[in-house]
Amino acid sequence: xxxxxxxxxxxxxxxxxxxxxxxxxxxxxxxxxxxxxxxxxxxxxxxxxxxxxxxxxxxxxxxxxxxxxxxxxxxxxxxxxxxxxxxxxxxxxxxxxxxxxxxxxxxxxxxxxxxxxxxxxxx
Length: 123
Hints:
The protein has about 120 residues and is α+β, with helices and mostly antiparallel strands.
């Protein structure tokens, strides 16, 4: 698998975090993450695709319309570092962060770890 294929996998994973319907989110995650994937960030840790589906759903409930853009992508030896910007539902910059991903033999993510400062609570 080359870096272009890994970036395509990451983009599908990242799109699953955006404002898409549940069936589209499931399709994107089935394409991009292993069934037993592990996701961690400063506020949570989940194991498995179904738990990740729920975690993403919680994010969209809390921050409706939030979406991501990749700012940079570095990759080697079945792992990658992604720098990204998260936008709120109105298109304003909301959070900037970095994520580390590890890819399995089939090219899907087996681990995704986000690093960012938690956004302030919205009222």
